[in-house]
Amino acid sequence: MSFRRRLHGLYLGYTVCFLLFLLGMGLLERWGVPHQYIGFIFLAAPLVIYAIVGVLGRTTDPSEYYVAGRRVPALYNGMAVGADWLSAASFIGLAGTLYLSGYGGLAFVMGWTGGFVLVALLLAPYLRKFGQFTIPDFLGTRYQGQLPRFIGLVATILCSFVYVVAQIYGVGLITTRLTSIASFEIGIFLGLGGVLVCSFLGGMRAITWTQVAQYIVLIVAYLVPVIWLSVNQTGVPVPQWAYGEQLRAVSQAEARLEADPGEQEVIRLLRDQARVLEYKIAHAEAALQADREKAWREVDALKRSRAAQYEIQAAERSMAQIPATPAQAVAQWQTERQDLLSRARPLAGMPEHAAQFDGNPDGTPAEQARYDASRRNFLALVFCLMVGTAGLPHILMRFYTTPSVREARASVGWSLFFIVLLYMTAPALAVLIKYQIFTHVVGTRFDALPAWIANWSRVDPGLLSVSDINHDGVLQLGELHIGSDILVLAMPEIAGLPYVLTGLVAAGGLAAALSTADGLLLTISNALSHDFYYRMVSPRAISSRRVMLSKLLLLLVALCAAWVASQKPANILFLVSAAFSLAASAFFPALVLGVFWTRANRWGAVAGMLSGLGVTFWYMVTTHPWLRGLFGVQSPVRLWWDIDPISAGIFGVPVGFAVITVVSLLTPPPPAEVREFVQRLRYPRYD
Prior knowledge:
Elements (H helix, E strand, L loop, with lengths): L1 H29 L4 H22 L5 H6 L6 H12 L2 H14 L4 H25 L4 H8 L3 H34 L4 H51 L4 H20 L2 H22 L1 H21 L4 H12 L5 H18 L21 H25 L3 H4 L8 H19 L2 H16 L9 H9 L4 E3 L13 E3 L4 H8 L4 H39 L5 H24 L5 H25 L5 H22 L1 H7 L17 H18 L5 H11 L5
Antiparallel strand pairs: 1-2
Helix pairs in contact: 1-9, 2-8, 2-9, 2-21, 4-9, 4-17, 4-21, 5-18, 5-21, 6-15, 6-17, 7-8, 8-9, 8-21, 8-22, 8-23, 8-24, 9-10, 9-21, 9-22, 10-18, 11-12, 11-14, 12-13, 15-23, 18-20, 20-21, 21-22, 23-24, 23-26, 24-25, 24-26
């Protein structure tokens, strides 16, 4: 109990100090300290705290490094899981997705939250009863062989690497904006130091106690600005309560924008631009050469006129991004054309936030087909996110750290509580931002646009750009291209809130990205050092060598992930959701059947994991634009039942279950010791 009392006192004091820090930063802003300095302080101060925790938590003991000594209380493990879970996708991307897709985005809230129910019922207590270090450990022991362990290791690395790329991409966005660095790539590698400072030194022990501190930062950073914005718009300090009133106001603004002649003209001009791209696709070689010459002339003109350095660098980056071959150009133009066509609709392609087609049989066939497809995709996404949550190795590893099976189950409940605090706020935030943009930004003259538009355009024009398409000098909604990944980070500036809240939100997003990235990098490095090197290559390796190897591999993986993130492969939410589908198809069937069906054997698990993962990966590669370009897929896109690539796991998971079942029944049953092992897992003692 003394250990828990010390933890309570330590983190209570930390919370009070953090609130005093915010007050001090607010005073600095009132005294006229430049925003750039405030941004640097918000970036540096949390990193210093995380570094101190990392240094204090440094260890070479395997039990402490891999599972924090198995002494993390349920409350704090729940906070750590919450921080591990509330990644850049949740903090940065969720409200932005709800902004762009309306009610359809609630699939993320339902799927991610519901997944923890599966974790509590099906996996967490049984994995804690198993009592080892990693998920491949469980697969290798349950299915008795190095082959299931190796497949689990490869799948762990694949889904965790995709996930960590998204987190480091988010770190790059935040670092670039806070420090005003012109290069997004430099921002990524600067932020990488914060990712490494804890995971490299102390493994799971340092990461756990840092994640508790990071959760406090991220939840305060998420709630305070939303409450402030709610008070500004409605006078109500509870955003969830103000949500309904503002949703009605948003619906009225949507009706006004749909009838606006300027918006209708922009739609017509966007369709004209799509036709230009269609011509370029048909004459790819000549069009590509013309684009190269135009980009070179723009760079040359900027240099001759001695333009600002950031403008020259932006033009040079644009020139460097021109495709190298006509085939690559065609793939890029097809994506751009599809984006233009999606924006060339009322409300810039966004659905009415509160309106859904009711599926009435009296509707047109096209309306009925759209409704059916949207319903299938909604349900498929909820399914993939739920089972993906129950299959993510970096989340399941956390339940090895509790003192007992009982606390493992209790920590799932605490995790849900800490996660719901953010998830119940995200829908309200999306509506409040949409109201702010529809009523205070759209309709503004271009020469009076707020500064945040120019600031974020410099960070990444692909995430935010404006262009006077119809040349009337007034910003229409269709002329504002804004990505889901920056809406939350830019929210204080969009709403005209004090700059200190911009720094606070960025610090919260940084905490969310760092906490998840730390856990993911540790998962990957542990899989390589513990499951591959120690379990498969050198079983007699001493513990200090294993821990040191894990640290070196962690550094190498982090550098590789940072390089991939610097290429901006896809938006954060797609990368994270892809990781969920991969984890669901690779792990969920093998783990659940491994616990609840004694007849499941080695060959069934091997065939099931390979087939489930293979189907999911193949569907993504053949249907997602970025992956098609990466792997050079030229065949036409064929969606199965109109299911989007983000939900590819809907096909892989049933395949995995079916293949494990069939192959296990067709091959000899596992030996008696395996059946006894399963029985011991099935009836965990709550000590």
